[in-house]
Specification:
The protein has helices at about 1-15, 20-55, 170-185, 190-200, 205-230, 270-280, 305-320, 325-345, 350-370, 375-390, 395-400, 405-425, 430-450, 450-460; strands at about 140, 150, 235-245, 250-255, 260-265, 285-290, 300-305. It is an alpha/beta fold. The longest helix has about 40 residues, at about 20-55.
Length: about 475
């Protein structure tokens, strides 16, 4: 009995030790934290499983979950909220006029019909398409003086090939194929079907592919001229996305301004690849996401894309508990203040001096936010990223020609992503070169209001590769409507 009492007293004395109590408290806290983390893991695993199941059974590739319970009625609103009222414009040129007479008798009562007025209706249609086949009778001869073989060439010819290669596609047909395949993402097989059913032109997939390769070689100097324009651009937005060449992962770069788009397919997505297009000494303004190689352009001024940062704030807020959400909420509030400040200045609500003062206060607010202690690991990673990007967060408030987001390059990337979904990339590096050249020329023509068929037809008929100036018809808008 005395031995048991002594052991109990010893245990009680041991439990009363301050170090033991601290360890017990520490153990209790760790157990509670472990249970909380286990619960969070179970919740996230359930959400991940539900998302994977939804991705497999969704009816459309862009389904956003269940429909709204009380959706708005589709269509235009009535009254003042209808929006812009527009209609198809009356054609300036009329090629054919058809008189439509009244019936001689009323179909209901059989009475006589009297004409009171004449109304006009317009119809714009496609004419019956018949391929235009040209035959060039080329004179072949020899120089009497030196004996050199000579031949004639017409400006409409696209090649000097004779014999088995004497039957060719014309410049407009090749330009349309380039637009369909490189601009709109239509596969070569669908282009072949369209040519045969709509135009009555029989052509093979390989024939279209080879024609576009020749067109790309003719357009290469123009493409190099676009690269030189990108290097001289005062403000430019780069971005990159995955691209397959020969089944291997490569990268498609897009360098965009309001009137210029340059694509480049390369092995990697580092500084060397970006510098091969822009030059390592680029000294303009780069509007880019947080990808670290962009910061290696040390002579450039930078604007970090606020859309990427706001999206990251939203993801952190959705995934974190109430306490951990304070930091992304604070960052989000400050970034949105910057966007509202720009809109207020552009709307004439504040002066230029007021803009400078408010920008300084905003930068100080962000600096104070980034000086805090953030224990949550995802927030800590975001904090370290923001500390690196802090000098580049509000460049758009110091220079109003700079956008707050990299939407120029994001819009340039989208057609490439559509093409990637259709064809998966290119089989060879020669095909990748054709892709980047023709896609750059087509995208720049579209931005500058230049007819792409005229440009590509001119390049295709040129006796040798030529640098063609793509002069814009009118200056494009700096911001989306």
């Amino acid at each position: 009995m005395s031995a048991r009492r002594s052991a109990a007293q010893a245990g009680a004395g041991h439990g009363g030790c301050p170090r033991c109590r601290a360890l017990q408290e520490r153990n209790r806290a760790l157990v509670e934290e472990n249970e909380a983390l286990r619960g969070r893991v179970r919740c996230l695993e359930g959400g991940l499983e539900a998302a994977e199941r939804a991705g497999k059974r969704q009816a459309a590739p862009f389904s956003k979950g269940r429909p709204k319970q009380g959706p708005r009625r589709p269509g235009r609103r009535s009254g003042a909220e209808y929006g812009v009222r527009a209609r198809r414009a009356v054609p300036e040129q009329v090629d054919e006029t058809i008189e439509v007479p009244l019936p001689e008798r009323c179909p209901d009562c059989g009475g006589a019909v009297e004409c009171r007025s004449v109304a006009e209706q317009y119809q714009t249609d496609l004419p019956p398409v018949r391929p235009l086949v040209r035959r060039f009778r080329i004179r072949l001869g020899t120089c009497v003086g030196c004996g050199k073989a000579l031949r004639g060439r017409h400006p409409g010819q696209t090649s000097l090939a004779l014999g088995a290669a004497s039957s060719q596609l014309g410049p407009h047909a090749v330009a349309l194929a380039a637009h369909l395949n490189k601009g709109l993402g239509l596969s070569f097989d669908k282009c072949r079907v369209l040519y045969e059913t709509a135009f009555g032109i029989r052509v093979s997939r390989s024939g279209l592919c080879q024609a576009l390769d020749r067109l790309a070689r003719a357009a290469e100097p123009t493409y190099l001229g676009l690269i030189e324009s990108a290097r001289q651009a005062p403000v430019l937005s780069p971005d990159e996305t995955g691209w397959k060449v020969g089944g291997q992962l490569r990268w498609l770069w897009a360098f965009a301004t309001p009137d210029l788009t340059v694509y480049s397919i390369q092995d990697g997505r580092g500084f060397d690849e970006a510098a091969s297009v822009l030059g390592a000494d680029y000294d303009g303004v780069l509007i880019r996401d947080g990808w670290a190689p962009y910061r290696s352009f040390e002579q450039a001024t930078h604007q970090s894309c606020l859309a990427h940062l706001l999206r990251r704030c939203r993801l952190l807020i959705d995934a974190a508990d109430r306490g951990a959400a304070r930091f992304p909420h604070a960052v989000r509030r400050t970034l949105l203040k910057g966007l509202r400040l720009r809109d207020r200045y552009l709307g004439g609500e504040i002066s230029e001096h007021g803009l400078r003062v408010a920008t300084s206060r905003l930068e100080a607010e962000m600096r104070r936010t980034l000086q805090g202690n953030v224990p949550h690991p995802p927030n800590l990673r975001f904090l370290n990223h923001l500390r690196t990007e802090r000098p580049h967060l509000f460049t758009f408030l110091h220079d109003l020609d700079v956008e707050a987001t990299n939407w120029w390059s994001e819009l340039a990337i989208r057609p490439a992503v559509v093409t990637r979904k259709v064809c998966g990339g290119n089989r060879t590096w020669a095909g990748a070169a054709t892709q980047q050249i023709l896609a750059s020329v087509l995208a720049t023509c579209r931005k500058r209001g230049v007819a792409p068929y005229r440009v590509l037809s001119t390049l295709y008929c040129s006796p040798r590769p030529t640098l063609l100036s793509l002069a814009p018809a009118s200056p494009p808008p700096l911001r989306p409507p």
